[in-house]
Amino acid sequence: MNKYSKLTQTAVTNFIYCGKKWLFLKRGPNKKIDANKLNGVGGRLEENETFLDACIRETKEETGYIVDKKDITLSGVVRLIGGYEVNWVMCFFRTKVNSIKIPTPPNKEDGKLVWINQEEIKMQKFELVDDINYCFEKIIDKNEPFFMNAKLNNNQKITNYSINNL
To answer: Where are the beta strands (DSSP E) in 19-59?
Structure first.
């Protein structure tokens, strides 16, 4: 297979915040990929769906929060190559909510929703999914979108990456 023929999966990850607290999904211990690690909420795009529409839908499905476009900011676009059966292109969003009271009960099939203070995340007190380790500072601290390209090994760990701001 040549380097251009590998399939690409599209997805969104939404990083929801209220003040200086951020909502994460702690992936379940039985998950095949990234078990017990923290990630934002999100998932794959459905047919004929935009990245923004997927962000709104996935946020409602996974948390119960009903968010409006005015509350959402594009944080970055992330491309992951290798490591998985398909390559990934993901839009990362940042969304402000007015309450840390999660509308949907916090235990889900994929894991548990937890609020964490951003300083604890910055101090690396928690294990994040690998790509978030490289860009979380940009998600919380920067207003301009970033673009990240990363090469993964067979264990889905980043071996080489680049990040640029718009």
So the answer is: 21-27, 38-39, 41-44
What is the C-alpha separation between 48 and 52, in angstroms, rounded? 12
Predicted structure pTM score: 0.91
For residue 29, how many other CB atoms are within 10 A of its CB? 8
Find where tokens 């999100």 sit. 42
Q: Please list, in sequence order, all residues whose beta carbon lies within 8 angstroms of the beta carbon of residue 154, skipping any fewer than 6 positions away.
A: 83
Residues 6+ apart with CB under 8 A from 134: 148, 150, 158, 161, 163
What is the band of 95 on the pLDDT scale with cuts at 50, 70, 90? very high
What is d(CA 152, CA 93) in angstroms, rounded to the nearest whole number? 22
113-129 pLDDT, tens digit each: 999 999 898 887 788 99
Instruction: Show Cβ contacts of residue 15 under 8 Å, excluding neighbours closer than 6 positions.
Output: 22, 23, 40, 75, 92, 93, 94, 95, 139, 140
Span 41-69, pLDDT tens digits: 999 999 999 999 999 999 999 999 999 99
Identify which of 38, 34, 43 has the alpha carbon closest to the alpha carbon of residue 12. Answer: 43
With CA atoms as reference, report the closest residue to 136 among 15, 10, 41: 15
End-to-end alpha carbon distance in the chain = 33
